[in-house]
Amino acid sequence: MNASTLIDKIWSAHRVVSLGDDVDLLYIDRIFLHERTGSIALRSLADAGRQVRNPRAVFVTIDHIVETTPGRRHSSRMPGGEVFIEATRQSARAAGVTLFDSDDPRQGIVHVVSPEQGIALPGVTLVCPDSHTSTVGGLGALAWGIGSSDAEHALATQTLAMKRPPQTRVRFDGHLGSGARAKDLILYLIGQYGAAGGAGHAIEFAGSAIEALDVEGRFTLCNMAVEFGAWTGIVAPDDRTIEYVQGRTWAPGGAQWDAALAYWRTLRSDEEARFERELAIDARDVKPQVTWGTSPQQVIAIGDPVPPAPVGGGRGQEEAARRALEYMGLNPGDRLTEYPIDAAFIGSCTNSRLTDLREAAAVLRGRRVATGVRALCVPGSTVVKKAAEEEGIDRVFKDAGFEWHEAGCSMCFYAGGATFPPGSRVISSTNRPFEGRQGPGVRTHLASPATVAASAILGRIGHAGELS
Known about the structure:
By secondary structure, the chain is of the alpha/beta class. Helices cover 32% and strands 18% of the residues. It has helices at 6-14, 38-47, 81-95, 110-116, 148-157, 182-193, 208-212, 215-223, 239-245, 254-264, 315-328, 354-364, 382-391, 393-400, 449-458, and strands at residues 15-20, 23-27, 30-34, 58-61, 98-100, 125-128, 142-145, 159-163, 167-173, 202-206, 232-234, 277-282, 289-291, 299-301, 343-346, 374-377, 402-404, 425-428, 443-446. Strands 5-4-3-6-7 form a 5-stranded parallel beta sheet, with helices on both faces. Helix 2 packs across helix 3 (81-95) and helix 12 crosses helix 14 (393-400). 55% of the residues are buried. The mean pLDDT is 95.
């Protein structure tokens, strides 16, 4: 028998039929929609006179453009957002699928809710019209983002025709450097190999540093596989994964649990399995990271100087670096630790889970946000928010001077609603520092939640190790 990778095993288990030229028709176990795309796919399906093939396998959440200010007084602050949300509600109810509405105690960001509720599981295939669907690869699901037309096809047939992707294994071995987190691992990888380093591959993350991560840290890693240019990211399930999954609402129980557990134990790459590419990183080299530019690949260890525009890297790279420096108001040789910040944001599908909030709270406890810094925390789901409040984490954030919001995507991206003033310098736990990503003219620096919290206290970009 040929040796197989983890992805090969899941792919083969879901192959309905081969269509030739490395294209297979795959069975899709779970389909997740949100209000930016849900109403489009569901309404288009209904307009075509078709029904959702398996409503029990389809889930919808209100997350992308929902209001998150305390008390959630409005459904959305985005122009036209309330229309999107109401259309999604109506379409979801008409289709008979599960809806996590804005007032549902299970509501939250799609990639937080999905594993939290046991909808994403090891070995399942899961799709969503959102690029960061790969997040749930952190527990061993094969998950990827799709477009609205593919979502419509999946809703109608529970299948998608997919070309098998090339595969890369990225090994992180050794103990993480002092103060470094999962977010620093993925930023370091992107910095070393570039935002196109994944080149459309399916990435398996492995190695002792990955095994040491909790499941929520693995979510962060797989979330930003997309920023590495990958099709998806995945981590083999292990005892940590099984402990995380057990007892969740849509997880199997009883005899089904035993059968699932036996299957999950087989989900790891065989020793002789071959990958198109192998990368190895010593986790001991990874220090707390922060982006300096408008691409995740424009990243440095905190305290290092901003690099000059690359010479010999091609006109496109040189021009991109020059434009990034101009947009961010920086010069080569600058140290970001010398730059004050205007705002700090903790949230998004990358870093808004309970462990993320605990890490930030550990930095904030007994301290105050610097004068002039607006600081916000937006939990990834209502479940996370409630759990944090039960632990008193919300009080730590509030006492430190952070705003404590309702669950949603919030200021991860700008859609015409909530934003920061033009020219603001923001330290953010999100995933993309693009021009205008958090609002017109806003300058975004990506970092881990612990680094965001420390920077809010310092009033400038810095890491937790600088706090006495």
